[in-house]
Design brief:
With about 400 residues, this protein is of the alpha/beta class. It contains nine helices and 16 strands. About 45% of the residues are buried.
């Protein structure tokens, strides 16, 4: 394993962030150069890392432990969790090179500065301090790939917990929350609905079934379902305070004078805790079978409507008495928790039995945008918080 003398490594969060931003870890590209750099950074401090590689050969998660390497289930430690991938910059009007860190007026600009390489930089900057402390509780560095395209990297890593990797008792997910403590977030469910109609000349529409028109009827029904949820299932902790349904893409059509035999659209549900998103897909199918398919199949028995689940990110709520939430509030010096509408890997850790909370530097309002930035003051607050995590792990 290649390593560098620790004296030659970047040491401050800003300097480390500059290095991390220089790696284009867009989900569709490899993250191996960044993961290998983090591995070598840790190795230079005498810390061994383990990779959990993807089958595609171009992605990997990384797991490392500081302090006691093992222990009873009651002392399994705390995981500091983040994802290494970022969203694309394609078509975005950046004022600077998104893969070169630029500081201006107390802000650090670059892709991933906020979401969420700023947190990774703070965690790595803490490593020398963690190494110098007689930790009684393990501190795990837990870095995943492909969070932005469906949390596909963290799930295989979690599957190894308690087997080849230790299972953290607590997990702090460092998504941008302005260092407030977030104990709940919406889930994200993605679906694809395929409509099979029957082609015909547009002058004889009664001889065919236009799949695009049927898709439009289904999309309208999704709008009615959302309106009902908005009127009957409200949780003011979230913004918006209801489960939202969005249609993100549609494809179909052959020519202006042919009824389209095929149409497909993708859609999703941002579900609050307690929302049955899979039930919404079943409700859409029931509407199709009751209202649309009888007339479609009267024209052609081959007509069909089928919805497939593409991805599931469960909603997250740490719940009353959460050890992770209580600890985060104590370390942050706060007495109030918040809920957010975006999703994180926290729900996957929670499903695996890890007490989990979300708290990290930066504002989600800056994530995924051109000229993404994190304020240097946010990194400073994060370092104060992480040093208190180190104090707790050494106590």
């Amino acid at each position: 394993m290649r390593s560098e003398p620790s004296a030659n490594l970047p040491a401050t969060p800003k300097d480390i962030l500059g290095k991390l931003v220089s790696f284009d870890t867009t989900s569709s590209k490899t993250n191996l150069p960044m993961a290998e750099w983090v591995r070598d950074f840790l190795a230079a401090h005498g810390i061994e890392s383990q990779f959990v590689r993807a089958d595609n050969g171009i992605h990997t998660s990384l797991f490392a432990t500081l302090g006691p390497a093992s222990g009873t289930p009651g002392t399994a430690g705390i995981g500091l969790s983040a994802h290494m991938d970022v969203v694309p910059t394609t078509g975005q009007p950046w004022d600077t090179d998104p893969y070169t860190l630029v500081e201006k007026d107390g802000r650090l600009y670059g892709r991933g500065t906020c979401d969420m390489k700023g947190y990774i930089a703070c965690v790595l900057a803490l490593v020398p301090e963690l190494k110098a402390r007689p930790l009684k509780t393990p501190v795990h560095i837990v870095l995943s790939y492909d969070e932005e395209v469906g949390c596909t990297g963290v799930k295989p890593m979690i599957e190894t917990f308690g087997k080849t990797l230790p299972k953290p008792r607590l997990v702090f997910v460092g998504e941008p929350t302005n260092m407030t403590v977030v104990d709940a977030h919406k889930g994200g469910y993605r679906f694809r609905t395929d409509v099979t109609g029957k082609d015909a000349h547009s002058a004889k529409p009664h001889l065919g079934v236009g799949a695009i028109r049927i898709a439009a009827e289904l999309i309208a029904e999704l709008g009615r379902i959302e309106a009902r949820l908005k009127a009957t299932h409200i949780n003011p902790r979230f913004d918006p305070p209801y489960a939202s349904i969005t249609v993100s893409g549609i494809e179909g059509g052959i020519a202006h004078n042919i009824l389209p035999p095929k149409c497909a659209f993708t859609w999703g549900v941002r579900a609050m805790p307690g929302t049955d998103a899979i039930g919404i897909a079943r409700e859409l199918q029931a509407y199709a079978e009751r209202t649309l398919l009888p007339d479609m199949r009267a024209v052609s028995p081959e007509c069909a409507i089928e919805t497939t689940t593409l991805g599931v990110l469960p909603p997250f709520f740490s719940g009353e008495g959460s050890e992770a939430t209580s600890l985060a509030l104590k370390l942050a010096g706060q007495n109030e928790t918040f809920a957010v509408s975006y999703g994180t890997e926290a729900s996957h850790f929670q499903v695996a039995g890890c007490s989990t909370v979300v708290c990290g530097p930066g504002s989600i309002d800056q994530a995924h945008k051109p000229n993404e930035f994190v304020e240097t003051a946010e990194l400073d607050k994060c370092m104060v918080f992480l040093r208190k995590v180190a104090d707790w792990a050494a106590a």
